[in-house]
Batch of 2 targets.
Target 1
Amino acid sequence: MTLNTFIHSLNTSLSFIICSVQSNLSMASMLQLVLLLGSLMVASAGSLNENFDITWGDGRGKMINNGELLTLSLDKASGSGFQSKNEYLFGKIDMQLKLVTGNSAGTVTAYYLSSKGSSWDEIDFEFLGNLSGDPYILHTNVFSQGKGNREQQFYLWFDPTADFHTYSILWNPQRIVFSVDGTPIREFKNSESIGVPFPKNQPMRIYSSLWNADDWATRGGLVKTDWTQAPFTASYRNFKADACVWSNGKSSCTSNSPSSSSSNGAWLSQELDTTSQERLKWVQKNYMIYNYCSDTKRFPQGLPAECSKTS
């Protein structure tokens, strides 16, 4: 982390803390301090050209600085995308993203894990662009055996276009945790005991794409993409995966050896400790703007079974 990046992160987080003072000052201050510390965490660098292939976009996706930086661009003719060379069956995946700046209305930057087939599994981050000055919407979803409709949406506590931030997926047999700068924002637990399929048998690749979705992405499609602002560009760096690589029908992990790239494989049984649970509750209280588990109008016959748990 450069000094300028550190100062920017510190100033952003301190401004957030000052602006977010609440009546319950001691609890709010404690949680905000934890968020500040989390926002300064940086994943170790990974070579993007060794781990990813740009798969579409006719040159709109680029590897820069010997694979230290990857950019995707969107113009009126096409977007672009990439995918991981490896498939994974469980892992802790980190990537730093800097989103499209300025008027990003109508654009979507998708970053997700997905398997193939009609009964696919998928774990989604999608960043829905907006007019200049309005916040991005971070859209999350989990598919298991082809069934999704598990959306939770959030605003962020910083400007995701001003600098890089780390977006992480922890995926182990017990849970899926979405995190931003080390702060958990969502947990989807394994609820197979009550009949809810959980992604655990299908290896998934990492994908990302930048594309035009102005028929729905911004205010339900009311705000269209302003092509005079094109090309739109999103940037990626510092990929890290402590994960089980799936190859030729076998996992790189054994039951006692989670990963050759992981120092101790703690992620394979990791759960949220008390501090992380408090951070999760704080983010969901203050920044969640949609939760399918609260949408009784959408599910008139009753909420999905997993909604009886935190998901």
Target 2
Amino acid sequence: MVVLVVATASDPASIGPAAAFLAMPGWSPGPPIPEGMESFTNGNVRLLKHERSIVAEDDLDRRWQEATGEAVSEVIFLSKHTAVSNRPALTVHPIGVPHLREDETPPQGGRPGWAGVPNPRIGPWFRLMQKVAADQGLVPEFEITLEATHHGPLTSTPTMFVEIGSTQEYWGRQDAAQAIALVLWKGLGLEEGNAVGTWLGSGEKVLLGIGGGHYAPRHMDIVIKDGVWVGHLLSGYSLPMEAPPQVNGKSSGEVGGMWKHSIKVSYEATKAGFPGGEVIAHLDQKSFKGWQKNAITSYLQEQNIKIGKPNDFLCKKI
């Protein structure tokens, strides 16, 4: 099984970290693959470079196996991050657009209603990224943060995005690219042979974040602690809820919208990413109105999904 790291030459925040990663020892040309792509190999790591949009290249894991005969255990995409704040940032997040209806077109890849299998390294690498960024002098200029689940492309294996934000000025920063390359180098075990965030299926608890903003601050307050695993993070926009009609001043009927589907497929994908783990929902309570919180809590109980408090997620170090 190989780890597939994917970069595109069309994105400076993607090709910069890839070039810094390739400058580290041990690389050799990888197997020939079609479609004008280049590949490089280092141990069980494969770096794939192409020139197209990073979110439009569906099924690269499957296509790699078909082209090379090598099964892919996980995919890590290198990409730019954009934000209204324009603040410099290093981010990591799972992928999917579970809240979109079938008749909606995903703005940045993926398939409507789909949640990718989250890479178990997301939580451990978020913490590793904080340490590397601090050691490299990027903090406090750069914010180190998780992002909620959003965008494509389609994959079948555990996947995450590692990004540099948030404007052209920072996408091409060599020090940020070097920090990302160090996270890859250390995180995949190429430095000392001990990868960071390898899931061993030991029955540990995994956080499924529900509610809050795009940067999931209340979930991040938990994930920042050593030993916490995290799967999908569903911000408020991934939980579209339509208030039930009022009859004599009281709500009557079901809460509409794609929120149930979004929770269900994200829970199932998180379970798939952490086989043998216990996936527990963590609610950003303050982000919901009363009727929303009641509906979500009832649905989670119906689905036998446990709701946890912050201390419920603290595990042994990983």
